[in-house]
Amino acid sequence: MCNAVRDNPERAQFVGYNPQTVRFIAFCLSGLFAGIAGGLAAINFEIVNSGYVGAEQSGTVLLATFVGGVGNFIGPVLGAILVTYLQVMLSDVTEIWQLYFGLLFIGMVMFAPGGLAGLLMMHAPLWHAGVVHRVLPAYLLTLVPALITLMGVSLIIEMSYRLLVKASDGTAMTFLRVPFDAAGPLPWLVAAVLLVGGFWAFRRTWLVVADAWNDAILRARTRGRA
User: Fold this and answer.
1) Which residues make Cβ contacts (< 8 Å) with residue 67, sequence separation at least 6?
2) Domain count, the chain
3) In Å, what is the CA distance from 108 to each residue of 67, 97, 103, 157, 194?
4) Which 8-state DSSP code applies to residue 93?
5) Residue 108 sits in the same domain as residue 62
6) How far apart are CA 141 and CA 73, in angstroms?
7) What's the rounded Cα separation, in Å, for the pair 13 and 32?
8) What pLDDT shows up at residue 186?
9) What is the tens place of the pLDDT at every residue in 130-166?
10) Do 5 and 22 contact (CB within 8 A), yes or no?
11) Residue of 159, 62, 55 lying closest to 108 (CA atoms)
């Protein structure tokens, strides 16, 4: 009914549900789970300060919700797990981990509006038909150039941050435990090759993914009719 009230409150009211009551109950339940999460966080970290009720914490929660997917109940759970894990991991690797969060959010909004849960639900018919294994090799093939492209983008971001913000600390830096000079032309050339080459290979392999997806959908429909 929450989904029905969100999509069409007039129709929900027509079948006998009060949209205001449904929204009120949903708001109360969200406050209940938020209070439970806050209590568990206080027990876990043994400290409570103004940062827990600030705009940054609220933004992180919204980010996790949209990344996980607002259209499914499991979506915010998946988003919370992913965002928390990346927050802990990336904060130890780079000082601008929040920028990567923003890029992840933009990418999910542009290319996967349904979030992680939406992507998983897309594969539900393939899973029920037993043909999901037909798209896995194509996904693994696409993963390699995608990681190469991500590496190129990350290298450009880290070098730009070093030269523009951390210039007082010098131009020497490390990326993936590889030391180099960010002011030299070679690192920028390598980053450009990784970015352009990886993206070109990613677009080429995306055709393989499309063919594998269409074949799997066709087989799933055939088995469903059978």
Assistant:
1) 79, 82, 83, 104, 105, 108, 115, 116
2) 3
3) 6, 17, 9, 19, 22
4) T
5) yes
6) 31
7) 25
8) 92
9) 888 889 999 999 999 999 999 999 999 999 999 988 8
10) yes
11) 62
Residue 194: is it exposed, middle or buried by C-beta count within 10 angstroms (0-12/13-18/19+)?
buried
What is the spatial distance between Cα 79 and Cα 108, in angstroms, rounded to a whole number?
11
Q: Is residue 118 part of a domain?
A: no
Note the pLDDT of residue 194: 94
Q: Which residues in the chain land under pLDDT 70?
A: 224-226
Give the per-residue pLDDT at 142.
93
- Name the nearest CA neighbour of 17 among 9, 28, 7: 9
The residue range of the domain holding 88 is: 58-113
How much is the pTM?
Answer: 0.77
The answer to whether residues 134 and 200 belong to one domain is yes
Asked, for residue 53, whether it belongs to a domain, the answer is no
Question: Is the domain of 133 the same as that of 220?
Answer: yes
